[in-house]
Amino acid sequence: MAKSSSSGPSQRMLRVGEQVRAAITQVLQRGEVRDPVISNTLISVTEVRMSPDLQVATAYVTPLGVDDHAKTIAALNKNARFIRGRVSPDLRQMRNIPELRFRDDTSFENYSKIDALLRSPEVARDLDHDEDADETGDGAGPEGEGKA
């Protein structure tokens, strides 16, 4: 009985994805990749999503302190086979070492957009309006009527 793919990743996919993420992080921290773009950039591996058959691992990375993420992502994808070979000892319990693909993680940009929206004057005005309504509504209850 196969589970539908729309229900999200399985527990096994999440566990293997975390193992792959840790292995990729170790390879990048040790500086084993001899590419100048990669070796001169601090790269954060935020998430690894596994395919249902565990044959493909898509790593979402954020190059820190770099404006042009595409250049770093291209260098990682160019060296993906080398990195795959370097992570294989850490993943020796797996039958097959997954193919690695690297993508830019845009979640930080999304978080900053949401933060900017929440800090905008229009939202702040609405939040202040809601707080004012709550404050005036607190003393209007039955227990507040007899205290004069």
Explain what the structure shows.
It is found in: Cytoplasm. Residues 138-148 have a biased composition (Gly residues). It holds the Pfam family RBFA. Its main location: cytoplasm. The structure is a single chain. With 148 residues, this protein is α+β, with helices and mostly antiparallel strands. The protein has two domains: 9-105, GMP Synthetase, Chain A, domain 3 (2-Layer Sandwich); 106-137. It is 51% helix and 16% strand. It has a three-stranded mixed sheet with strand order 1-2-3. α1 (11-30) packs across α4. The longest helix is centred in the N-terminal third of the chain and has 20 residues, at 11-30.
Largest sheet: 3 strands, mixed
Helix and strand run: HHEEHHEHHH
How many domain units? Answer: 2
Instruction: Count the beta strands.
Output: 3
What's the CATH class of the largest domain, please? Alpha Beta
Which CATH architecture of the largest domain is right? 2-Layer Sandwich
Strand content: 15-25%
Question: CATH-wise, what's the superfamily of the largest domain?
Answer: K homology (KH) domain
CATH-defined topology of the largest domain: GMP Synthetase, Chain A, domain 3
| Uncertain ranges | 144-148
Number of helical elements: 7
Radius of gyration (Å): 24 Å
Which whole number gives the mean pLDDT? 84
Structural class: alpha+beta
Helix fraction, binned, reads 40-55%
Order of strands, widest sheet: 1-2-3
Based on Cα principal axes, name the global outline. Answer: elongated
Q: In whole angstroms, how far apart are the ends?
A: 70 Å
Organism: Hoeflea alexandrii
Keywords: Cytoplasm, Ribosome biogenesis
Pfam family, one: RBFA
Subcellular location: Cytoplasm
